[in-house]
């Protein structure tokens, strides 16, 4: 027979503070939300915008980049044979092409001009080095001689300065004086004058300014890498660059 001990009592359940229970519940809810977010992100990445490249596409892109390098070298040799004499010391360069079929050496040259993004533009002083670079990257840029009106409009409408690693609009002459006052440049008008006349402190002023972020022009560019003189978009437009600037400003 079995004996039941009268003095034996049931053991009490372990006590868990309410704060811990709430924290545990919140953690579980957060984990569920996080899991759903990750699932949605994966689902989105596998949607219509997600494209798996085929081996043939990688081969084609590699050949395009190698062809770009060969053409760049050829354009560089052509430049040595025929020296182009610019009509003006001031040039404005606009990057008009992306980087899908661009060789890394071509991209490096564009970066040396501070043209890291498509439809960005910069003022430069014409020199033998600049002309050699332009010849090599010709299919990816349009350039020419900006007039005073476009110099003025670009700086007033889209002028940004780099201050403490931040892009700041040119709305405060005090900021200009602090950065360029030592060169006698204390306001926006002085910046316009220095660039338009390619003054002795042109380099300091253009370094102070960020590359201009231009608008995509409607129907002005057809995506053709042929030279402008041959019916394309690229290369030297001389004074006709002003029409393109007006459309993109």
UniProtKB/TrEMBL annotation:
UniProt cross-references to Pfam families, sorted A to Z: Ribosomal_L30, Ribosomal_L30_N
Cellular component aspect of the GO annotation: cytosolic large ribosomal subunit
Residue intervals of the Large ribosomal subunit protein uL30 N-terminal eukaryotes domain: 16-77
Domain Large ribosomal subunit protein uL30-like ferredoxin-like fold span(s) in chain numbering: 91-141
GO molecular function: RNA binding; structural constituent of ribosome
InterPro entries: Ribo_uL30_ferredoxin-like_sf, Ribosomal_uL30, Ribosomal_uL30_euk, Ribosomal_uL30_euk_arc, Ribosomal_uL30_ferredoxin-like, Ribosomal_uL30_N_euk
Keywords carried by this UniProt record: Ribonucleoprotein, Ribosomal protein
GO terms of biological process kind: maturation of LSU-rRNA from tricistronic rRNA transcript (SSU-rRNA, 5.8S rRNA, LSU-rRNA)
Family: Belongs to the universal ribosomal protein uL30 family.
Protein name, entry field: 60S ribosomal protein L7
Organism: Escallonia rubra
């Amino acid at each position: 027979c079995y004996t039941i001990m009268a003095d034996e009592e049931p053991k009490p359940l372990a006590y868990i503070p309410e704060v811990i229970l709430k924290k545990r519940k919140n953690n579980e809810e957060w984990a569920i939300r996080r899991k759903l977010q990750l699932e949605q992100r994966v689902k989105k990445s596998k949607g219509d915008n997600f494209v798996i490249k085929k081996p043939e596409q990688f081969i084609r892109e590699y050949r395009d980049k190698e062809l770009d390098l060969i053409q760049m070298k050829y354009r560089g040799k052509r430049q040595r044979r025929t020296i182009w004499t610019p009509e003006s010391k001031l040039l404005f360069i606009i990057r008009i092409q992306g980087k899908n079929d661009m060789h890394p050496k071509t991209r490096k040259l564009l970066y040396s001009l501070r043209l890291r993004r498509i439809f960005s533009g910069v003022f430069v002083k014409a020199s033998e080095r600049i002309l050699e670079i332009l010849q090599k990257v010709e299919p990816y840029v349009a350039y020419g001689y900006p007039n005073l009106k476009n110099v003025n409009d670009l700086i007033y409408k889209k002028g940004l300065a780099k201050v403490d690693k931040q892009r700041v609009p040119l709305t405060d002459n005090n900021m200009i004086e602090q950065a360029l006052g030592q060169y006698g440049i204390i306001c926006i008008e002085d910046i316009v004058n220095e660039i338009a006349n390619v003054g002795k402190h042109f380099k300091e002023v253009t370094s102070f300014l960020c590359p201009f972020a231009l608008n995509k022009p409607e129907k002005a560019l057809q995506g053709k890498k042929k030279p402008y003189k041959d019916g394309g978009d690229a290369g030297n437009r001389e004074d006709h660059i002003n029409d393109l600037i007006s459309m993109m400003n």
